[in-house]
Amino acid sequence: MGKILMKGNEAIGEAAIRAGCTNYFAYPITPQSEVAEYLARRLPEVGGVFLQGESEVAVSYMIFGASACGERVFTTSSSPGISLMSEGISYIAAAQCPAVFVNIMRGGPGLGGILPSQGDYFQATKGGGHGDYRLLVLAPASVQEAAEMVMQAFSLAEKYRNPVMILGDGLIGQMMEPVAFPEHLATPPVNKDDWATNGMANRGSQRPNLVKTLYLDPEQLNAHNLTLRAKYQRMRQEEVRFEPYNTEVDYQVLIVSFGTMSRVCRTAIDNLKAQGREVAMIRPQTLFPYPEAAVREAAAKASCRVVLSVEMNMGQMVEDVERSVRGQRPVEWFGKCGGEVPTPEEVMEAVRGLLAR
Amino acid sequence: MAKGKTFKRPEALRDCPTHYCPGCTHGVIHRLVAEVIDELGVRGRTVGIAPVGCAVLAYNYFNCDFQEAAHGRAPAMATGIKRVRPDLMVFTYQGDGDLASIGMGEIVHAANRGEKFTTIFVNNAIYGMTGGQMAPTTMPGQRTSTSPFGRDAAQVGMPIRVAELLASLQTPAYIARQTVIKPKYIARARKAIHKAFSYQLANRCFSLVEIVSTCPTNWGMTPLDAVEWTEKTLLAYYPPGEIKTPEAAEER
Ligand SMILES: Cc1ncc(C[n+]2csc(CCOP(=O)(O)OP(=O)(O)O)c2C)c(N)n1
Ligand code: SF4
């Protein structure tokens, strides 16, 4: 199939439909309202469900209810909206229901701004809601990758019976790029009769299904958390994704960067190469599970003097980089938030500053 | 076998004791809901939604699919289910703290959208599960653990009449209030629940039955005194009856 030129937000909406998810609940917020606007027109064409909820809190529970009765369902929002959904996300993760959340991040904290940001790294990877849960977090760096990750997210959510989050930034949502929707990424939904509340008669069962999150007995709650933990461990083994760049040469600096920011770093690396300086990059495509081993091994290369985490925030992922590098090399942070994406020149300047030390 | 009616457990209820206190009306309400589910023959496609409150464990007593909500969010979950699976019969079972305080936004908007599910709203004028704190439905002067000198309407307003508030919405709906404190009321409550579910099954409208209930434990009363106080004080402020029917709303 040929590529079509699409805005990131619209591609995200279309990708879900192509992946076989035609249930969407959302509340408007910049810079991702185009997803809802696109789907308000598009979903009726495919007999899907579109509903604008009264708040992100309510939306997260519409997602919970729909996924708990076994249907594929997703929502999109941006930072302040995800904060409100975090209560529901904790319940959905606890109840082990598959669902897909897209966060097209904007600047924070508080109302912040409406321009691109990566300020919700902690929220997405360490749990924005309460309790011991994890999301499987995918970070696209292009419209094409955003579309593919959305398509893959539904089967990943079902594989783990866990919410999956696509963590993009305002730029991914707003920019236009050619995009294709690879048909092989569309997988049929799995059978959920053993747990979903889809009506006993509908699944020919005499046993009611129950979707719950309350475990008053301490031993049972501990066992429940161990079950969740085992899933997160399995994600760590099976789902880590990253893209290395210029790692085959002898580099002095290793950059770690994700999403839109990694594209700028790529340009900076190319420019520095032209000036005779070798810099490599690991771009995590999954933020949880984090590509710890890849970062550690790349940092351990004999030529590498320092590791630089470049982020559109005040230094969040850098903590995972430090954790991965385990003190083998100094780890530094460079970033900016407020909405302006650091330029290649600014990244090059930061790298040169490290090398001059 | 002798002919006639035998008093037996509805299929939609499990054969087990409940954790509710003596004199609490939750158990009676469960039974009425279960009887109606049986009567309509919809147990196999029913999904109940338990609240956060004393009825959080309702799924241990009902014999059909269940989801357990977060505090106040049951109407949003019911919306999610009904939108993607309109063939399922969905009811939320919510207390007054759950529905009228933390979940007020969810219930108002679900009712206003005319979501095709049924809410059983158990109004006992107090927070039961957490030990008797003031609810939005607590009566003026009523002492609770967080209104130890009695509810002061000048400070916290008057109790909310949820049924009337929801009935003021322009969207057609079935909204009724009943109680189950005496046999004569029970039959009416049962009828209201039957009607509410029937409107849902006909894909007609949102439906809610408020049941004025007791919480002798947190009211600090004997079960008998609780019945008397409910009849005298609560029913005076929360009068039973059909407050809105879709027919009347559509005629306007
Ligand atoms: C977000 C959140 N806030 C507070 C609580 C604590 N809480 C549990 S039940 C409850 C009140 C329940 O009262 P009501 O809805 O009237 O039901 P009842 O127990 O009287 O049947 C509260 C405040 C909670 N579980 N979650
Ligand atoms: S605390 Fe009140 S509402 Fe809860 S079970 Fe006891 S009597 Fe019923």
Question: Which series of helices and strands of chain A comes N to C?
Answer: EHEHEHEHEHEHEHEEHEEHEEHEHEH
SS content category of chain A = alpha/beta
The helix-and-strand class of chain B reads alpha/beta
Total individual domains of chain A:
2
- Largest beta sheet: strand ordering of chain B: 2-1-3-4-6-5-7
Q: Can you list the ligands bound to this structure?
A: thiamine diphosphate, iron/sulfur cluster
Tally of alpha and pi helices of chain A: 12
pLDDT below 50 for ≥5 consecutive residues: which ranges of chain A?
A: none
Strand residue percentage of chain B: 15-25%
Q: Give the CATH superfamily of chain B.
A: Thiamin diphosphate (ThDP)-binding fold, Pyr/PP domains
Measured between the Cα atoms of the first and last residue of chain A, the distance is 51 Å
Explain this structure to me?
The complex is a heterodimer of chains A (357) and B (252). By secondary structure, chain A is α/β, with parallel strands linked by helices. Chain A has 2 domains: 4-203 and 211-238, Rossmann fold; 243-355, 3-Layer(aba) Sandwich (Rossmann fold). Helices cover 41% and strands 19% of the residues of chain A. Chain A has helices spanning 8-18, 33-45, 56-68, 79-94, 121-126, 143-160, 170-174, 218-238, 259-274, 292-299, 318-325, 344-355; strands spanning 4-7, 23-26, 49-52, 74-77, 99-105, 136-138, 163-169, 176-179, 210-211, 242-245, 253-256, 279-284, 286-288, 306-311, 331-335. In chain A, the strands form 4 sheets. A 5-stranded mixed beta sheet of chain A has the order 4-5-7-6-13, sandwiched between helices. In chain A, strands 10-12-11-14-15 form a 5-stranded mixed beta sheet, with helices on both faces. In chain A, helix 2 links the parallel strand 2 (23-26) and strand 3 (49-52). The longest helix of chain A has 21 residues, at 218-238. Chain A is globular and about 70 Å long. Chain B is an alpha/beta fold. Chain B has a single domain, classed as Rossmann fold, CATH 3.40.50. In chain B, strands 2-1-3-4-6-5-7 form a 7-stranded mixed beta sheet, with helices on both faces. In chain B, helix 1 (26-40) packs across helix 7 and helix 3 crosses helix 4. The N and C termini of chain B lie far apart (53 Å). Classes of the chains: A alpha/beta (357), B alpha/beta (252). The A-B interface holds A 23, 25, 49, 51, 53-55, 57-69, 71, 73, 87-88, 91, 95, 197-202, 208-214 and B 43-47, 49-50, 56-57, 59, 62-70, 73, 76-81, 83-85, 87-88, 105-106, 109. Strand 9 (210-211) of chain A pairs parallel with strand 2 (65-68) of chain B. Iron/sulfur cluster binds at residues 20-21, 24, 26, 54, 124, 128, 215-218 of chain B.
